[in-house]
Each structure stands twice: as C-alpha cells, then as structure tokens.
Amino acid sequence: MKIEVLGTGCMKCRRLAKNVEKAVAELGIPAEIEKVEDITAIMDRGVMLTPALIVDGELKVSGRVADVKEIREILQG
Question: Does the keyword Electron transport apply (predicted)?
C-alpha cells in the first residue's frame, strides 16, 4: 500500500502525516508513506487544497486533517 501525504510542510500537514503514521502502526499493515511537499508535484496530482491524503493513487481527503480513526477506516477499505 502506498500512502502519500501532500502538503507544503505546514502544521496541519505535519499533523496529518503523524496521524497517518499512527494509524498504520495501530493497524500493523505494511505501507510506504511518502510526504510530498513540492507544490508542483501536489498540483500534478490534482490537489488544490492541502493537507491531502492519497492512498494507492486515489485522493481520499483534501483540505483538512483526518483523525486517526478516519484514516484507519480508509486504510481498511
């Protein structure tokens, strides 16, 4: 599973990244977590609001910080 956290490094972006790491650890699933901070790379993915969460190439959350529970639900499908 590939998880991308998109954001320019703001506090909300860092909080989303921490929540993702915590959700992955709680689930005990193998996942590649990548932080994408380059604005051009973010826009190339069609994201206009950050922070954003992409799982396996699909945009799941944009413009807000998802909590750990919501991220766990997203990752469990």
Answer: yes
Name the CATH superfamily, with its identifier, for domain 2-76.
Glutaredoxin (3.40.30.10)
Catalytic residue set: 10, 13
- Tokens linked to 24: 């992955």
Q: What is the pLDDT of residues 22-60, one digit of tens each?
A: 999 999 999 999 999 999 999 999 999 999 999 999 999
Residue 39 φ/ψ region, left for φ over 0, alpha for ψ in the -120 to 50 degree band, beta for the rest? alpha
Taking the domains of the chain in order of start, what are their residue ranges? 2-76
Please tell me whether the overall predicted TM-score, pTM, comes out greater than 0.85 for this model.
yes
Q: What single-letter DSSP state applies at residue 25?
A: H
